[in-house]
Amino acid sequence: MKVILPKEVVADVQLHLPSNLTVLPVDSEGNIDGDAKDAEVYFNWFYLKKETLHKVLTSAPALRWQHTPSAGVNHILTPTFLERDIILTNGAGVHAIPIAEFVITYMLAYAKQLPSLYACQAEKLWKKGWPIKELKDATLLIIGAGGIGQEIALRAKAFGMQIFGSRRHPQAMPNFDLLVDAQEWRSLLPKADYVVIAAPLTPETKGMIDATALSLMRPNAYLINIARGAVVDELALYKALSEGAIAGAALDTFYTEPLPPESPFWSLPNVFVTPHCSGNSPKVVERSLALFLDNFNRYSSRKPLRNVVNKKAGY
Questions:
Q1: Active site residue: 29, 134, 184, 257, which one?
Q2: 3-state secondary structure of 180
Q3: What is d(CA 287, CA 133) in angstroms, rounded to the nearest whole number?
Q4: Which residue(s) pair with 249 in the sheet?
Q5: Which is the catalytic residue, given 151, 167, 228, 234?
Q6: DSSP 16
Q7: Domain residues for 213?
Q8: Which DSSP state fits 310?
Q9: Mean pLDDT of 35-54
Q10: Could you report the per-residue pLDDT of 186-238, keeping only the tens digit for each?
Q11: Known catalytic residue: 75?
Q12: Does residue 257 carry a catalytic annotation?
């Protein structure tokens, strides 16, 4: 069997694979070291470009299974990919802990006025009277109660927050006070102090945080997006933020990345911009490799794979 592995982790992964395998390293541009015509497995690395994906697909016509370390797969489900009968598995779960910790950080930064306090320190200004809040008894709405949403709820519940969530098939889950289906979350917006977007990008979720949804939020509500930029109508969000219709936002992801220097989001005083880094952690790499290797053993033994993507649903 031939396996295409990213050059970044060939040495770490190959140690745990059977010695009779042929490993074909691939770089970030899709250049493969060796003949991939009969390769069965492709493990792509982070930040996979469409051009790279298509180059590998052309070089590997016999590909049967592709694994990506990312949770989102909208960049992989191109028409070219969907023409092929390839099993796709993703990295759902490996980023959940660092992202959940970042969400708590965003909420605490807003509640405790950390940006303003940092600014005062820089100016050596001893200023009191800040409108500092508690997270206890505040209401958190998590749109997308999957693996990431559940890790967020676990940590938020420790602060004494009331937690609402939504998912396609709602069922009782630990740490959630209320769960609704994917169509009902809008009815909860007027009740939420914090709204976290943790839903995958699909045709159904694209642009769902629009002017109507934003108009349902409280003037003191804070929006956090750790999902995908295209889930949000950015023009509507900018208008809501600049006019004070909502209190502020923490945005880790945008429609265009890197966020262009001319973007008005950089200079909005009530916005915390981070460079799509909420999922970063050395442990994410460890979890990603462990997940691939576990799935490889399952694939070799013809057992069901973990994290198989529903290509029609988009996640």
A1: 257
A2: strand
A3: 35
A4: 223, 271
A5: 228
A6: T
A7: 96-273
A8: -
A9: 97
A10: 999 999 999 999 999 999 999 999 999 999 999 999 999 999 999 999 999 99
A11: no
A12: yes
Q: What is the distance between the alpha carbons of residues 314 and 230, in angstroms, rounded to a whole number?
A: 14
SS3 state at 216: coil
Q: What is the CATH number of the domain that holds 33?
A: 3.40.50.720
The answer to whether residue 311 is domain-embedded is: no
Residues 135 and 245 both lie in one domain? yes
298 in active site = no
315 domain-assigned: no
> 163 with 210, same domain?
yes
16 and 111, same domain (yes or no): no
Q: Among 64, 218, 276, 298, which one carries the catalytic annotation?
A: 276
Does 123 share its domain with 33? Answer: no
Same domain, 54 and 164: no
pLDDT over 70, % of the chain: 100
Do the beta carbons of residue 165 and residue 184 sit within 8 Å? no
CA neighbor of 106 nearest in space, from 205, 247, 217, 242: 247
Domain check: are 87 and 19 in the same one?
yes
Residues found in the chain = 315
pTM: 0.93
Residue 305 maps to a domain: no
Q: pLDDT averaged over the chain? A: 97
The verdict on whether omega for the bond into residue 258 sits within 30 degrees of 0, i.e. cis, is: yes
> What confidence tens digit (pLDDT) does each residue in 100-129 have?
999 999 999 999 999 999 999 999 999 999
- Do residues 63 and 116 share a domain? no
Give 233-299 as a DSSP string: -HHHHHHHHHTTSSSEEEES--SSSSPPTT-GGGG-TTEEE--S-TT--HHHHHHHHHHHHHHHHHH
- Number of structural domains the chain divides into: 2
Cα–Cα distance between 222 and 194 in angstroms, integer? 5
Residue 79, strand partner residues: none
Residue pointed to by tokens 């997308």: 144
Residue 183 confidence class, pLDDT cut points 50, 70, 90: confident
